[in-house]
Specification:
- By secondary structure, the protein is of the alpha+beta class.
- The chain has two domains: 71 residues, no CATH class; 110 residues, Winged helix-like DNA-binding domain superfamily/Winged helix DNA-binding domain (Arc Repressor Mutant, subunit A).
- 33% of the residues lie in helices and 16% in strands.
- The chain is built from five helices and seven strands; from the N terminus they run ββαββαβααββα.
- A hairpin with a 6-residue loop joins β6 and β7.
- The longest helix is centred in the C-terminal third of the chain and has 18 residues.
- The radius of gyration is 21 Å and the shape is elongated.
């Protein structure tokens, strides 16, 4: 049986609905409108929703739903290393404070820096990181590259990085082995700069 998907986007609400039939999806949309989580047709957008964790369709017509708030991210569980720059307003990791020392062949260590960024984003509670975001952080740090997927292929095949999605919506996340390697890089850069890791 085919699974149908629908996405509802409203200020403060981003929900992906999955159901086995169109009537299932319509029933969920009706519920969201009745609970004033999404506007009726022709109405202005609503204020951010209240928590919708206990709606009656959970597990019935909806097999998967996500709720992402547009409000600022909660502060990280523990302070990040001084090696990371974090935007004070959004709480997002925006750059590394220092570039890594060049490799033995005088090449930039872009892939090691990418591991470090993925590790910092995970510590900051930002979850899997899209390739465009990863490239943006690396460019703000001073690394130059046209693409990020090809340099990371070696680390993906070594089992340091997991990927999900395809093409422009590809996201990256560290494995336990990748986290261990990123910790080593963090200690290296912190030691070189004389700060705690």
């Amino acid at each position: 049986m085919a699974i149908l998907k629908a996405r509802v986007v409203n200020p403060g609400l981003d929900v992906t609905l999955e159901g086995e039939s169109v009537p299932d999806l319509r029933a969920v949309l009706k519920f969201l409108r009745e609970e004033k989580l999404i506007p009726q047709a022709g109405e202005a957008p609503l204020a951010p929703p209240r928590e919708a964790a206990s709606h009656p369709y959970r597990g019935k017509a909806v097999s998967h739903a996500t709720h992402e708030s547009t409000q600022s991210r909660a502060p990280p569980k523990k302070p990040l290393s001084p090696a990371f720059k974090v935007d004070e307003k959004s709480g997002e990791l925006t750059a590394l404070r220092w570039k890594l020392a060049e490799g033995p062949d005088q090449s930039e260590r872009t892939t090691d820096a990418a591991l470090l960024v993925l590790y910092g984003k995970e510590l900051n509670g930002e979850g899997p990181t899209y390739g465009a975001t990863l490239m943006s952080v690396l460019k703000r740090t001073g690394y130059t590259m046209a693409r990020i997927d090809r340099p990371l292929e070696a680390y993906i095949s070594q089992g340091l990085i997991l990927t999900s999605g395809k093409k422009r919506s590809r996201a990256y996340q560290l494995t336990e082995t990748g986290k261990a390697r990123a910790k080593e890089i963090l200690v290296e850069i912190a030691t070189a700069m004389g700060v705690p890791p």
